């Protein structure tokens, strides 16, 4: 890997200036590397982070079951990585005009990385540096503990999609002055209600007392209030401290294990916690990227188109550009292209905002003619899309803005696939042109790990996991291995409460179409004990 | 572990098979497709209108989209080393009490035009996590995708042959090729791997055929008094003989070796000499049922196993293996290379005897029985229109007259209870019991994993 040459770097700097003028914002420095195919081979499995820790699975092809790609929404060949400074990768034989286009695209990504709030948890450190030190730690551990390091990596990676990304993010956004202190929250939310089980009148009296001391003592209010409260409940402080220590997020299995597993907290196993922590951090780092694929690619495509066409340096290459650009952002006849969809949606939002249509006034208009002519000459389009780029991930981007007008404008529809059994052909047909269905189809393809929480009250020392049922079962073949890993890390048996489908196949009723079958859901409890999985119906 | 009563459902298959239950459906399928062309599927995944139907938005990358780059490919040599390492790691896993994770055979792909000598071995693994299963969903809600165009709701955009999706043995995971870094290795390497890592037994030689053309030099001749290397064992034996004759080894007293006399002529040396090389030679017949009922998983199992056996034999015979590939439905035909053998599409009915007959004819015509070790491996789902084996058994008995080993693999459909036609008539004939050194049968379920496939090989060849 070597840096791009000075000539190309100058072009990049020119792109930065123009992008800044257009309103994008990003750090001054960036690193651009030339990569060969060989480099790519090594970088691919490491998600393009050159310093990611070594792990043998990176040398092996990971099986993607046919047609179930959605299980593994990771992107092995990202062009830009979200580091400080951001690093992007190029091959060395691109003509200048193409580089200009790619640079704009890259700057679009960097802009999202550094301004979209989903990435908030990645802003305060440089991941390549972090990863490098992690890699060294793992290498050192491996020299001491041998292959057991890899087992621990394997078992932690098996649950690295069960990190509470949103919870983690929420903590970053609760500003100090806005809320109440943790002690106050604990006192009113937990202590009075669950520990003391006070009556409602008592509870209200406490609230009044707090409000009163707020009025009387100003900045010292809380202190005075608790001085009083502690006189009544001397155990309050110790309860609060214990609670603070023992309340790991129940949706964050990795963190729960880190804090509560007796096995991991034994002296001789402390080293494993380092690995768990590394895997967890790494997973959290990639979470925002997976959740902003359409926003990210859409935004970058929107800007590379806009800025390229305004760029005076590349006159004469409009046709070349058009060809590549169309290849990237044309709407496929069948399929979902995040570049095409995201770019169009941003353009659409901008236009709608410019006409004042992102408003309640517009929503109330039902008459299609009036809707068509509705225009307040608002000119708030740019502001609107910058707002979207700052605040939304894929799910909300689609949910908030992809409406029927957009669908009709771009002639989008949901494609279904059915078997014509008489002729033994698959038919692809227009299943629906409703925005609602289209949104649902898109939502179904988005990354969505199962919600699995720890129930500390059940299990009696064993780990009791509860899978929140969302209409899908877990991939059955993977349950055993995953739970075996958790059992190892927990050091005791593990239970998993989940739902399992029983597919009743009824002989076909009609002549064509899909056979009728009913899916009956059953709540079952898997138990992993001594590396053996058993199952019982609840 | 208790298994759930659900199969991992391939949407294509499930739709096609749900209509009628089990064997009836298969039988009908065979009848329906009699006379259809088997044809080899097109080598490359054609870029069709619908190929992006299943493509997730996450499968789009800047690298391919913006720069139109091609996914990088790993070279053979770089990765061959890692295969050994990986398998070593896998063996240790087992010792440490964790299940194996590397799969070798599952992704074996035959390569076109390589005369059957090259297989592509892709060591692969799965990273198990709790994932939502996208396959199970209400049946009226198939998988959907986005699209764009002017058609009305309900209008058909296009059609695709359903049969293309079925029974494509080579088209397992990794077919997309986009991210696969295949590892090429000769069948020999795979065979070596199998022998060493999976502890497959070595072959018992039936006989060797003398080669007139090749010589090796070896320290085989012995010479007393002088030579290149002292043969200590033989020398000691001579010394003992001499001294016994001299009376230096009395029967009733302890022997004192210091009193031994050592004559110069007692020293036995080995000398270098030219030897004619002995080469074992083998012909392997791979016979595969490609009738209509073989669609899907069963074919996959059979061909996977045959690739593994093939590789193992190539290693065992140090490349001195001639292989013949025979496909049969109601008629049998020989195909020229492994690729065709591996990839031919299924159709038509089943007549096992036709294949056995063809093997017998080939052997008789070429006079193979005299000079070669002959192996026949037959893979089938156990269906045979000749239910009682009236035609198959006589051919089989003829075959047992010359083969070193005949191995029959039956990949049973999951709804097959109580055994299959082929299994029935083989059991009944008593051949399995009376000639266990010549004929073996292994029946496995279609859901068998790689470990089971290799176990099956062990059963067939041990």
TrEMBL record, chain A:
It holds the Pfam family SpoVR. This is SpoVR family protein. InterPro entries: Spore_V_R, SpoVR_N. It comes from Pelotalea chapellei. Residues 9-443 form the SpoVR protein-like N-terminal domain.
From TrEMBL, chain B:
Residues 168-177 have a biased composition (Gly residues). It comes from the Bacteria. Residues 131-186 are annotated as: Disordered. Residues 131-143 have a biased composition (Basic and acidic residues). InterPro entries: UPF0229 (IPR006698), vWFA_dom_sf (IPR036465). NCBIfam families: PRK05325.2-4 (NF003712). This is DUF444 family protein. It comes from Pelotalea chapellei.
């Amino acid at each position: 890997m070597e840096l791009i040459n000075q000539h190309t770097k100058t072009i990049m700097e020119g792109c930065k200036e123009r992008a800044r003028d257009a309103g994008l914002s990003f750090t001054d420095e960036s690193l651009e590397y030339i990569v060969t195919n060989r480099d790519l081979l090594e970088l691919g499995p490491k998600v393009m982070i050159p310093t990611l820790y070594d792990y043998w699975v990176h040398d092996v092809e990971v099986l993607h079951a046919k047609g179930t790609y959605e299980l593994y929404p990771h992107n092995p060949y990202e062009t830009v990585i979200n580091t400080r400074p951001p690093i992007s990768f190029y091959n060395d034989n691109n003509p200048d005009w193409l580089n200009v286009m790619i640079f704009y695209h890259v700057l679009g990504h960097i802009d999202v990385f550094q301004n979209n709030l989903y990435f908030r948890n990645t802003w305060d450190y440089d991941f390549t540096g972090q990863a490098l030190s992690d890699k060294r730690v793992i290498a050192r551990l491996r020299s001491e503990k041998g292959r057991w390091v890899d087992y621990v990596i394997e078992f932690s990676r098996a649950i690295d999609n069960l990190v509470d990304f949103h919870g983690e993010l929420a903590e970053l956004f609760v500003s100090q002055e806005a809320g109440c202190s943790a002690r106050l929250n604990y006192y009113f939310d937990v202590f009075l209600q669950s520990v003391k089980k006070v009556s409602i009148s008592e509870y209200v009296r406490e609230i009044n007392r707090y409000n009163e001391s707020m009025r009387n003592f100003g900045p010292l209010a809380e202190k005075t209030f608790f001085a009083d409260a502690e006189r009544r409940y001397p155990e309050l402080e110790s309860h609060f401290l214990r609670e603070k220590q023992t309340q790991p997020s129940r949706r964050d299995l990795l963190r729960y294990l880190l804090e509560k597993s007796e096995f991991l907290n034994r002296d001789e196993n402390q080293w494993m916690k380092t690995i768990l922590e590394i895997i967890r951090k790494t997973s959290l780092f990639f979470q925002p990227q997976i959740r902003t694929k359409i926003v990210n690619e859409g935004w970058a495509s929107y800007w590379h188109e806009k800025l390229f066409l305004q760029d005076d340096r590349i006159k004469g290459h409009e046709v070349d550009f058009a060809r590549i650009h169309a290849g990237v952002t044309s709407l496929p006849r069948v399929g979902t292209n995040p570049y095409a969809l995201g770019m169009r949606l941003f353009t659409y939002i901008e236009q709608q905002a410019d006409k004042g249509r992102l408003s309640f006034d517009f929503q109330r208009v039902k008459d299609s003619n009036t809707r068509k002519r509705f225009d307040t000459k608002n000119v708030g389009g740019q502001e609107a899309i910058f707002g979207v780029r700052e605040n939304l991930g894929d799910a909300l981007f689609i949910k908030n803005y992809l409406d029927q007008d957009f669908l009709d404008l771009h002639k989008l529809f949901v494609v279904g696939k059915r078997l014509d059994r008489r002729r033994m052909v698959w038919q692809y047909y227009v299943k629906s042109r409703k925005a609602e269905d289209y949104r649902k189809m898109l939502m179904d393809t988005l990354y969505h790990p199962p919600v699995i929480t720890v129930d500390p009250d059940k299990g009696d020392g064993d780990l009791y996991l509860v899978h929140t049922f969302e209409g899908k079962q877990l991939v059955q073949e993977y349950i055993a291995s995953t739970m075996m890993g958790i059992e190892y890390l927990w050091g005791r048996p593990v239970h998993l409460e989940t739902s399992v489908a029983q597919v009743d196949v009824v002989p076909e009723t009609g002549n064509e179409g899909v056979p009728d079958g009913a899916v009956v859901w059953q709540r079952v409890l898997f138990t992993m004990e001594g590396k053996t999985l058993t199952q019982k119906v609840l | 572990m208790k298994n759930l009563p659900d199969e991992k459902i391939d949407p294509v298959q499930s739709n096609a098979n749900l209509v009628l239950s089990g064997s009836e459906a298969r039988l009908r399928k065979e009848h329906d497709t009699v006379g259809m062309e088997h044809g080899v599927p097109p080598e490359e995944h054609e870029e069709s209108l619908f190929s992006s139907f299943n493509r997730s938005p996450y499968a789009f990358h800047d690298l391919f989209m913006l720069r139109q780059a091609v996914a990088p490919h790993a070279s053979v040599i770089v990765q061959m080393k890692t295969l050994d390492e990986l398998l070593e790691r896998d063996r240790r896993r087992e010792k440490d009490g964790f299940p194996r994770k590397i799969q070798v055979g599952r992704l074996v792909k035959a390569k076109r035009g390589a005369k059957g000598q090259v297989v592509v071995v892709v060591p692969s693994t799965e990273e198990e996590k709790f994932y939502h299963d996208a396959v199970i969903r209400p049946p009226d809600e198939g998988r959907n995708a986005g699209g764009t165009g002017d058609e009305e709701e309900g209008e058909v955009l296009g059609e695709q042959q359903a049969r293309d999706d079925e029974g494509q043995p080579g088209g397992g995971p990794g077919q997309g090729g986009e991210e696969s870094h295949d590892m090429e290795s000769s069948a020999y390497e795979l065979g070596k791997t199998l022998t060493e890592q999976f502890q497959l037994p070595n072959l018992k030689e039936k006989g060797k055929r003398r080669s007139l053309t090749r010589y090796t030099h070896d320290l085989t001749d012995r010479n007393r008094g002088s030579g290149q290397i002292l043969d200590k064992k033989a020398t000691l034996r001579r010394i003992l003989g001499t001294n016994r004759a001299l009376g230096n080894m009395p029967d009733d007293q302890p022997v004192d070796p210091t009193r031994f006399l050592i004559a110069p002529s007692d020293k036995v040396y080995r000398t270098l000499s030219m030897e004619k090389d002995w080469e074992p030679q083998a012909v392997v017949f791979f016979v595969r049922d490609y009738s209509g009922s073989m669609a899907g998983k069963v074919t996959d199992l059979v061909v996977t196993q045959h690739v593994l056996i093939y590789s193992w034999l190539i290693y065992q015979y140090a490349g001195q293996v001639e292989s013949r590939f025979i496909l049969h439905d109601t008629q049998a035909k020989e195909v020229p290379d492994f690729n065709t053998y591996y990839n031919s599409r299924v159709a038509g009915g089943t007549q096992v005897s036709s294949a056995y007959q063809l093997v017998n004819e080939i052997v008789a015509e070429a006079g193979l029985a005299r000079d070669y070790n002959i192996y026949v491996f037959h893979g089938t789902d156990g269906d045979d229109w000749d239910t009682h084996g009236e035609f198959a058994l006589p051919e089989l008995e003829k075959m047992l007259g010359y083969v070193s080993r005949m191995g029959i693999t039956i990949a049973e459909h999951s709804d097959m209870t109580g055994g299959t036609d082929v299994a029935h008539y083989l059991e009944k004939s008593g051949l399995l019991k009376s000639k266990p050194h010549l004929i073996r049968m292994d029946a496995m379920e279609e859901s068998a994993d790689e470990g089971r496939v290799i176990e099956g090989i062990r059963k067939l060849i041990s």
